[in-house]
Amino acid sequence: MEEDSKQEKDIVKRSVYLLRVSDKKQMYTATDIDPEGNSIPTQREWCDKRNRELKALKVDEYVEAGYSGQAIDKRPIFKQLLKRIVEQRDIDYVVIYMRSRIFRNYVEAAVVKQQLDKLGVKLISARENFGEGYMAEGMEAITDVINWIDVRRNGEDIKVKMLNKVKNGGTNGQARLGYINTTAIIDGHKVNTIAVDEERAKYVKMAFDLFATGKYNVDELRDKLTDLGLRMPRSNEPVSPQTLNLRLQDRYYLGYVIHKGMEYPGRHEKLISEELFDKVQRVLASHSGSGVRHRKHHHYLKGTIWCDRCKQRFMVQRARGRSGGVYFYFFCGGREDKVCEQPYIPIKAMEAAVAAHYGRALHLSGAFRAAVRDAVDAAVATSSSLSDDMRAEFEQRLAKLDKKEDYFLELAGEEDWPKDKLRAKVQALRSERQSIRRQLDQAEAQLEAGRQVFYMALNLLERPQAAYQAGSEEVRTVLNRAFFTRLYVDVEDDMPVVTSQKLKEPFDVLCATYTAYEAAQAAEPGQTLVCSSEKQAGAALDEYGACGLRSSLSEALDRALLADGSSTSDMVGPERLELSLART
């Protein structure tokens, strides 16, 4: 009996350490003193001291970093430790610095204790010596509950501070691409803030500018930016397409910060304009709507041509001939769903059909184009800028909108208020304010912008078929996106034909007005033509067709000057198009 007792005393207990910091940055504090930083060496020192008191042999060490507030099932290092204990069964103690370092939840602490007890392993806190027995276990449990309460209280305090920071224009967390985290003196206090990353901000601006042209999808834009030198700040890796897509939709670059789904005006410098951001969103939406995926059999007509029979898109299919050659053709998506019998159409035949349509559907006579220019000039000349009374009224409205927004943002800080409804109200206020400011700041400029929309459209319509036929695939892509939302195609006499179209503004107005104009010219002098649909824009033409034409185009011009109509930004890269046409 005495011999067995002596053997038990001679057995050396074995231990492992579990050291933990909640943020990887803590690993790099005071690295001039210790390469591991200050936190981990301090924890190891205390664990060594406690391990000597236990007279245990340290056999391994596990270091967790950067899993702040995570549950145990999301902490891979902790899971590795438990797996090692289960598989090797050679551990008596797990030595930790403090229980609050390991457990943020008293329930998980109890579960881990139960698991370790079954394995014959005891968890030892270097800074907290609770002793032995059921009273010690009770003190451990009480400590875990108190730690949990502290975590919850600190979490609520952090929420309040984060909300207060964004209300004052600050940014929480890691800086977006194009910005850097830094410190600044604000109101006499040193605070964490955001500054423009001079190295990468130019690439962010470039990304929006390039994507707004409509010439790139996200994958192609990513490759372009990578070739130009864009790298992520910490990893030095190229930006991923997924990250780039998110950044193109991020209103942070407009000067806003988002907290719990609500937008607040930020202190950081905005990198792009509202107009450019809106144009990029339209291009993103058009890519989504057309379903174009350039990575598989790209063709410049994809997304533009649709089946006239079942109203589904045409897609490109690759095939191999009997002689081994490879060729491509268009086929209707309805064939896959077995709802359409549209024949397969060779690529060249489809291209010829669209080119022929340019000659039939987009021809405006020189006399009509001259009349349009006169009408536009007259509309601009007779339109007046805002009066003093209107400006004063707008200013008063802006002040009221500012007060309303502040009120709603204050409500957003309360947990009980519905965030979706508040967000919608704030967005509506900002849209109205943006529209008013645009009218205040650009009253005269908008008139000229509207004039240029129609001038540009008329220039494109001067020789559209010749430009299309002579243009490269890039030029044809731009022209198709500028003129049409959809072209419907069917096969007649074994040949594809464009049967109908949906034109973009302002071409829909111009072409519909031209139809009415031609009809009026053929009518007897003095006859008034009444159009039967909204698409026929010249609602009433006099014997020369000029008065009604001016009225119709004045309405179209009004839409061009307002937020819900055409604008120069709606044209797909007009300045690039003009340069491209000049080269053809």
Keywords:
single chain; 584 residues; alpha/beta; four-stranded parallel sheet; three-stranded mixed sheet; elongated; disordered C terminus
User: How can the largest sheet be summarized?
Assistant: 4 strands, parallel
**What's the shape?**
elongated
Structural class: alpha/beta
Q: What fraction of residues sit in β-strands?
A: 15-25%
Number of helical regions: 21
Mean pLDDT across the residues is: 76
Distance between the termini: 104 Å
Biggest sheet strand order reads: 2-1-3-4
Number of strands: 16
Uncertain ranges: 5-9, 26-37, 289-295, 526-554, 556-584
Gyration radius, rounded? 35 Å
Helix content: 40-55%
Detailed description of the structure:
With 584 residues, the protein is an alpha/beta fold. The chain has helices spanning 2-10, 39-54, 76-88, 99-102, 106-118, 134-167, 201-212, 218-228, 241-248, 274-290, 333-336, 347-361, 366-382, 388-412, 419-441, 443-460, 464-470, 473-483, 507-522, 546-561, 574-583, and strands at residues 13-21, 56-65, 93-96, 122-125, 179-186, 189-196, 256-259, 262-265, 305-307, 314-320, 326-332, 345-346, 484-492, 495-503, 529-530, 540-541. Strand 13 and strand 14 form a beta hairpin.
